[in-house]
Amino acid sequence: MLRIHYADYEALRAHGEETYPNECCGVLLGKNIAGEDDGVTVNHVQQIVRAGNTRTDSAHNRYQIAPQELVKIQRQARGLGLDIVGFYHSHPDHPAQWSKTDFAEAHWLGCSYLITSVEQGKAVLTNSFLLSGSGEDDKNFEDQAIQIDIAANVAEAAAPNQKGQA
Amino acid sequence: MNIHIPTPLRAYTGGLETVSVAGTTVSSVFQQLTVQYPELKPHLFTPEGKLRSFVNVYLNDDDIRYLPNKEETPAADTDELTIIPSIAGGTSCRL
User: Fold this and answer.
1) A single Pfam family, by name (chain B) (predicted)?
2) Which residue of A19, A142, A149, B87 shows the fewest CB atoms closer than 10 Å?
């Protein structure tokens, strides 16, 4: 399972809208918690970090985060006591499903890969895929449930008419 | 010197994010690293002993591929080595 705060979830979807028609990308910082939820490993996101897409030659259908930027982000995570638990990117006018390219270029086993489809500039679906396996030979993308944590004040603002109802 | 291990490879370092390894060059540090943590080796190197193409290695802020002496660059105890697999993808194989 992937756990993420509502504000972070909305922010990464907004990032995809901002960069449309190009792909956006970023890093999910948090903690990997083994077996927190009935034995299911949870990647608990506590912060998202926007990254630049270095594939300026084909930014509408490719993304790449510069290794130097990843080193800095990993350093930032270490300073916060967090780990890199996943990545996100957008698919402009394309389904929120991993592609052959996504799979071939995925090497962070145990991490979550979030993909948001952005249709005509509007974020539509966001799906998460866990890169499972023990190495390059048996790696696999598994569908991963997303739990979105909504703060009480945000939930009240989103549904004011339900306040006080049993 | 300290070596920072990315999340996926910590399964092979007993969960450690940072490990300390002795060595005078990047190459010798890597050799010692894979002696101390032998399960790391196939994830970092091909069967022919070459660093896997998707594995980036930074000596402080420098990609070792672009250093004049590459893997034979001298390394001091105060230097830091960071292993960072690449991250890329996209909607299709079209270029």
Assistant:
1) ThiS
2) A142
Segment A93-132, tens digit of pLDDT:
999 999 999 999 999 999 999 999 999 999 999 999 999 9
| CA dihedral over A65, A69, A75, A80, signed as positive or negative | negative
Q: How confident is the model at residue B32 (pLDDT cuts 50, 70, 90)?
A: very high
Cis peptide before A21 (omega within 30 of 0): yes
- Record: contact B7-A71, CB cut-off 8 A: no
Return the pLDDT at A133.
94
* Model confidence pLDDT, tens digit, residues A153-166: 666 666 655 444 43
The CATH class of A2-159 is alpha beta
Residue in A25, A89, A111 closest to B7 by CB: A111
CA–CA min distance B74, chain A (Å)? 20
Average pLDDT taken over every residue of chain B: 93
Using an 8 Å CB-CB cutoff, list residues of chain A that contact chain B.
Answer: 23, 25, 27, 32, 55, 58, 61-65, 67-68, 70-71, 74-75, 78, 83-85, 87, 89, 91-92, 94, 98-102, 105-111, 113, 135
Mutate to test the interface with A, among B2, B65, B87, B92 (most CBs of A within 10 A): B87
